[in-house]
Each structure stands twice: as C-alpha cells, then as structure tokens.
Amino acid sequence: MNSSLTNLFRRTTSTGTYYPEIDGLRFIAIALVVLYHLSDRAIRSFKLQGGQDEWANSVRDLFAMGDVGVHLFFAISGYIISKPFLDRYALQSTQTFSLKQYFLRRLTRLEPPYLLVMTGIFLFLSVSGYQTSIAKSYYETSIPLWQSYLASLPYLHGIIFDTGSRLNPPAWSLELEVRFYILAPVLMIAYFSLRRYELARSLLLVGVIGCVLSQAFMFGGHFKSNNFSLFSYIQYFVIGILLCDLHMRRPHEMPSRSFSISIDIMSLAALIIFARSHQWLGYYPVRELVKLLCVIAIFYGAFHGHYFAMMLRNRFISLTGGMCYSIYLIHMPMMQVLVERFAHFLPAQNFALFLLIQAAVILPIILVTSAAFFLLVEKPCMQKDWPQKLSENAKIGITALRNRLTKNVSNPKTFD
C-alpha cells in the first residue's frame, strides 16, 4: 500500500499526532462487533430457510464477542478523550483548550455522519416499506418508526423507550458515548487537577472497583448489563483515562527484544481471555475485574510489545480501524438486507459453510462501502474548520450564481 493511499485513508486527528496502535485496537473492536452481528444474523436467516445443523449454535457462539468489542471501544474513548485534558491540566501544555471547543469538536466531528445515516435509514424504510425478519429490535416492538427516528437523533432512544433503535440497533453504544462526553470534563478536570498523582490514580482504581461491586450488589452476582445505562459501563471509560495518564505522563522506555516478546504473549493471552470472558467467566464481579486487567494488558502490549504492536500498526489493520465509526454506523443496516437476500441462494444444510460464504461476499461489500462513506463524509468532518470552509464555499457559490444571474439579466441574449 503506497504512501499516497495511506494518507488518503488515514484519519485526521485534532492534535496532529497519530497513533496507529490505537487504530489497530479499534480494528480489533470493530472486528469483534461485525463478526458477531454477521454470525447472529446468519443463523437467524439459516433457520428461517429451514436449515438443520446441530452445530449451528456452537459455530455462532464462537463469534459471540460483540459486547466485549464495544467495551474495548469504551476504553479507547476514555483514552482519547483524556488526552487534551491531560495536556492542559497535568502536563501544562502550551496548546490552547476550551470546553466550548471540546463540545463543538464532538458535535462537528460525530454528528453529521450519524444524522446522515439515521436519516437515510429512516427514509429508506419509510419509502420502501422494507420489512426484515432477522432483526428482533425491528419486528418485536410496537414503537412507530418515526418515534424511533426522533428519539435516536438526540441519542435518547434508550432512555425514552428502554430499547435499541429500530433504525440502527448498534446506536445504543453511541448514546452512552455521548453521555460520557458530557460527563468527561467534570470527571477529568477533577482527576487531572490533583497534584498528588499516585493518590489520584489510587482513587481512580478504587472508583473502578467500586463501580463493579456496586453493579453486582444492585443487580446480582450474575448481573447482565443494562445496555442503556452509562453506569453499567463507566468502568471501561475510566480505565481508559487511567491508561492515558500512565502512558502520557510517565512514558516508559521500549523494553528489550526478548522482554517485548514476553509482552506480546501476555497481550495475546489477555486478548483471548477478554474476547471469551462472557463464555468462560460467569460470576459478574470476577469477570469484569478480569476484563479490566485484560484491557490494561492489551493497551500495554499495543505500545510496548513487538509483534503485537507491529500487527496493530499494519497499514491495512490500522487504516481499517481508523474507519471504525463509518463501519459501525452502516454495517448493521447493510448486513440485514444482504444476509436476508443472499440466504435464498445458499444451501441450508451446513451452517459453517453458510456463514463462510455469507462472510466472503458481504464483508468486502461492507468494507468498500464504509471506505467510501469514510472518504466522502466522515473524514471531511475530521477537519476542525470544515464548518467555516463549508460556509465560505457556500458564500462563494451564491455570489458566483448571483453574478451570473445579474449578468444574464443585464445582457439578455437575442435571437434572429
């Protein structure tokens, strides 16, 4: 992949500093989500086609890792959002920072792609009358489509209806992200303003453990997270804050080659345990604390490992991870249509083969479409000044059109 193509698809950051390892972690997170959704939709479609395979549920369960992918996204968000606060309040950076710009950046960066996708889905479903039989959140609800749309726009669907959006079920996690963005300034200004760093970190760790134990106490030892409450997932955002603090405030020297390989093994083991934690660990407090330790090990390996870090920095992996927001927004609507339609042409005897063929056809289509959406919509919104540029270009266009009309009126053409 040449450098010009790399620059074309590389995400634009607000600080100008690019960490391919973070985008590599985003790739892992979005891969876990997409593979889970594909296998889940595929097995529903397989059964609707009359498929009989005693191993179907077992094969699907191999990819039942979507929740942990979202949890990894939450930790990454905590890490990324912490950076400007750390620079301003702890490292005394010379970079200017204001809460107004912080919220404006979130609004102009994330809102246009979200609004475009949600509005596009709403119009498609309303005009086409398309009905799906493999999306429970769509057909097992009495919520009118227009109400679901209006509640989704301000990220309030989970609060209002206590269920995911009919338009785009994965949007539930974006609602939690928005609530964290609102809470983050208070939390991080308080944390980074403390001068006794070790005390601040200790308090943060106590807070994380306290959140997990409180969740278990309130909802039971086998508590299943309430998808629509930030409290259910706050520990992942907070651990991201701690990881950013440890990485940026006290950067470590790169370890020796032999030790870095040991870190690779630790990170890979942590990733496997993290991905399979819901299958292997039943008791909620233990599972959550183990997952948080795994997140720490995964991040440590991303910055201090050798082969593990090299994998995350791979161009395809990091660039695809950089497009994760576009993929997350559009993969589910496309998947539900493609899986359902394509299933009619596949044999329904072996689910593993059924899923493999679905993946071979559908995943490239989703990737190419997401890349186009990223280039045309998301990446332009990464530019800080895109609203000003859009306004200036609109003014230039209006002025040119006005001048053209004025010229035509003052010098009308005559025909003999």
What is the string of SSEs from the N terminus onward? Answer: HHHHHHHHHHHHHHHHHH
Which stretches are low in confidence, meaning pLDDT under 50 for 5 or more residues running? Answer: none
Average pLDDT, rounded to a whole number, is 87
The coarse overall form would be globular
Oligomer: single chain
Rounded to the nearest angstrom, the distance between the terminal CA atoms is 60 Å
Largest sheet: none
SSE-based structural type: mainly alpha
General description of the model:
With 416 residues, this protein is an all-alpha fold. It has one domain. The chain has 18 helices and no strands. Helix 2 (20-48) packs across helix 17 and helix 4 (66-89) packs across helix 11. It is globular, with a radius of gyration of 24 Å.
Name the features.
mainly alpha
Give the SSE map.
Elements: H1 3-9, H2 20-48, H3 56-62, H4 66-89, H5 99-128, H6 136-139, H7 145-152, H8 157-161, H9 171-192, H10 197-219, H11 234-249, H12 257-280, H13 284-304, H14 307-313, H15 315-322, H16 324-342, H17 351-382, H18 386-410
Helix pairs in contact: 2-3, 2-4, 2-14, 2-15, 2-16, 2-17, 4-9, 4-11, 5-7, 5-16, 5-17, 10-11, 10-13, 11-13, 12-13, 13-14, 16-17
